[in-house]
């Protein structure tokens, strides 16, 4: 297939679509190579060899076959379309053949013959009128006059045919054809009395068209439309599926006329507003005067209801309980009792809202569940990525600043002069007055140093801000749940360790209590997860409990230790600020926890202690 350059360019969109369908994506280089092969007239093998540099051999051969086959089909389709367009152009201006049954230009039509006969009859009538003055015309009956006129017409027709008989086919009647549309109005025939008659002599009543106004025409159309709509409505009403209760909207929206406000409407409205404002102002003045004179307090005392009377009113039994007012229609139970006992009105008519449906309560989520989904994990960049991001941000800021300077929104910065580039920036000035230039350069350097220090100072947090930042880090949100940890210490007699337990809890804003009872010293702390992790490290790692020794039974001694009894989450806090409580007996210790609703903390720790003693 050999294509011209123009044909190849026309096929380029098709080649692009074929390549995209073959590969699944666009490849401009492959499209250009395919178009070049088609325009060069390569066969299938040469095209496949040309495309094999971009694809593998199998795909190149398959694509070459599709391209050549499709190109031939595209060319044939375009040629067929061009031939169809040429044929349509030729037949558009071709001459129409003469239709059968039409008379040739030399023949007389029936209309022409009739006109000739009418003219001859008119000449006869005029001749009769001319002769009527000298010779009285006899009275002829109407039937005889009609017969006489027909005879004359027949004679004239015979004479005309005899005169024109030398022309063959001149007066022949054409074949029966469909009636042609008259291009001119029919001639008007008048009798002797001036009345309109037809070709047979009968009188013709002409329709007289009288002009009318457009307003009358519109009124007639409107009446006809109304009649038509009424007929449509009657037809729809007769149908079985028509519901008269449903208001049918008209097909067209009615015209809305102007609605003018009556004169003085807004004046009355303004006067009403002024009167209302004046009344409110007067009421405020009266209230202030009553307050100054003490009348308002006396009025309030008079309106007060005695406690005994108010109590009596509250204890009165209502006719209908408030929870029954939603389903009972009446104001008492009498109607319902009558319906049940005496068999009066049906009970369903007296109750409303009672159905056979079951109302399920709304299922609510637990307050500890998060209201939102899990927070997205933060993206941690490597050092190389952070440097690249910083360079990009600085580049964008520099471009924005240069654009503002170019538009004149900011003044251009002074040249950044240092002692090292002094001669390169200020060459001629340095030679003229080096002392002045050096002082100017040092002044610029000091100015830049000062601006840098001020920027650092502005970013530096104040003492209050640092304190607030530290508090924000320590305090945690415990609305979704409070983390609780229970520690058991064998002995808390060491004041230094006791101080660390109390002070660290206060610094971490933890709540809880410390109960001291023999060898069951419980430390309960409540807070957030980070606070608990720091306090756990304090209790289990930082404080060296094993340094202290405890005197056991007889001369036996053992080392002090701290044990994590339990940790978990609860809905809310049970304690306030951390405080110490000395309990001489076990019942007092359990009672202390029971007051706060967490006696199970003590039960768990005390039972574990008893088990350890039993094992020992």
Can you characterise this structure?
The protein is an alpha+beta fold and 616 residues long. Among the domains are: 5-86, Up-down Bundle (PWI domain), CATH 1.20.1390.10; 106-135 and 143-174 and 185-203, no CATH class; 319-352, no CATH class; 382-413; 481-615, Alpha-Beta Plaits. Helix content is 54%, strand content 6%. It has 21 helices and 7 strands. It has a 5-stranded mixed beta sheet, sandwiched between helices. Helix 1 packs across helix 4. The radius of gyration is 59 Å and the shape is extended. The two termini are 104 Å apart. This is U4/U6 small nuclear ribonucleoprotein Prp3. Keywords: mRNA processing, mRNA splicing, Nucleus, Phosphoprotein, Ribonucleoprotein. Residues 74-107, 440-473 are annotated as: Disordered. Residues 81-93, 440-467 have a biased composition (Basic and acidic residues). It is found in: Nucleus.
Estimated radius of gyration: 59 Å
The CATH class label of the domain at 481-615 is Alpha Beta
Relative helix content: 40-55%
- The low-confidence parts are 91-101, 134-142, 168-182
Major sheet: 5 strands, mixed
Tell me the number of helical segments per DSSP (H or I, 4 or more residues long): 21
Q: Provide the CATH architecture of the domain at 481-615.
A: 2-Layer Sandwich
First-to-last CA distance = 104 Å
């Amino acid at each position: 297939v050999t294509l011209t350059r123009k044909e190849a360019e026309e096929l380029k969109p098709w080649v692009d679509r074929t390549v995209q369908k073959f590969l699944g994506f666009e490849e401009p280089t492959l499209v250009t190579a395919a178009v070049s092969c088609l325009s060069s007239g390569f066969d299938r093998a040469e095209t496949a060899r040309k495309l094999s540099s971009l694809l593998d051999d199998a795909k190149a051969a398959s694509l070459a076959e599709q391209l050549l086959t499709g190109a031939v089909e595209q060319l044939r389709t375009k040629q067929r379309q061009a031939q169809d367009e040429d044929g349509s152009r030729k037949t558009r201006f071709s001459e129409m053949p003469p239709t059968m049954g039409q008379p040739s230009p030399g023949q007389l039509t029936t209309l022409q013959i009739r006109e000739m006969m009418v003219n001859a009859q008119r000449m006869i009538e005029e001749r009769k009128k001319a002769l009527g003055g000298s010779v009285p015309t006899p009275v002829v009956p109407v039937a005889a006059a009609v017969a006489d006129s027909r005879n004359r017409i027949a004679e004239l027709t015979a004479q005309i045919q005899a005169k024109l008989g030398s022309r063959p086919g001149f007066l022949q009647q054409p074949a029966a054809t469909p009636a042609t549309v008259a291009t001119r109005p029919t001639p008007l025939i008048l009798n002797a009395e001036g009345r309109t008659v037809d070709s047979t002599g009968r009188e013709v009543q002409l329709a007289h068209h009288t002009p009318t106004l457009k307003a009358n025409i519109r009124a007639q159309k409107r009446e006809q439309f109304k009649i038509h709509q009424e007929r449509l409505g009657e037809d729809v009403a007769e149908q079985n599926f028509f519901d008269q209760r449903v208001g049918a909207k008209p097909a067209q929206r009615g015209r809305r006329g102007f609605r003018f406000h009556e004169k003085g409407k807004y004046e009355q409205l303004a006067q009403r507003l002024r009167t209302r404002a004046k009344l409110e102002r007067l009421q405020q003045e009266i209230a202030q005067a009553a307050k100054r004179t003490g009348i308002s307090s006396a009025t309030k005392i008079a309106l007060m209801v005695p406690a005994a009377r108010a109590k009596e009113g509250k204890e009165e039994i209502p006719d209908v309980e408030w929870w029954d007012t939603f389903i009972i229609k009446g104001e008492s139970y009498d109607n319902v009792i009558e319906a049940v006992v005496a068999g009066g009105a049906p009970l369903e008519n007296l109750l409303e809202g009672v159905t056979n449906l079951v109302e399920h309560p709304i299922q609510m989520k637990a307050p500890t569940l998060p209201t939102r989904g899990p927070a997205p994990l933060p993206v941690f960049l490597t050092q190389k990525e952070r440097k690249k991001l910083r360079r990009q941000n600085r580049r964008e800021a520099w471009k924005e600043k240069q654009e503002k300077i170019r538009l004149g929104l900011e003044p251009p910065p002074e040249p950044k002069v240092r002692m090292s580039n002094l001669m390169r920036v200020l060459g001629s000035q340095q030679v003229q007055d080096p002392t002045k230039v050096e002082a100017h350069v040092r002044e610029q350097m000091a100015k830049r140093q000062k601006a840098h220090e001020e920027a650092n100072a502005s970013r530096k947090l104040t003492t209050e801000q640092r304190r607030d930042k530290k508090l924000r880090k320590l305090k945690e949100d415990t609305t979704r749940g409070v983390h609780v940890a229970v520690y058991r210490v064998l002995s808390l007699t060491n004041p230094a360790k006791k101080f660390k337990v109390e002070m660290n809890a206060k610094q971490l804003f933890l709540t809880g209590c410390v109960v001291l009872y023999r060898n069951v010293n419980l430390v309960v702390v409540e807070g957030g997860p980070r606070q608990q992790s720091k306090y756990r490290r304090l209790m289990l790692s930082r404080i060296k409990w094993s340094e202290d020794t405890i005197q056991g039974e007889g001369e036996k001694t053992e080392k002090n230790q701290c044990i994590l009894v339990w940790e978990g989450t609860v809905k809310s806090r049970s304690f306030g600020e951390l405080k110490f409580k000395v309990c001489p007996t076990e019942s007092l210790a359990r009672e202390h926890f029971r007051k706060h609703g967490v006696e199970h903390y003590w039960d768990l720790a005390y039972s574990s202690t008893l088990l350890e003693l039993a094992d020992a």
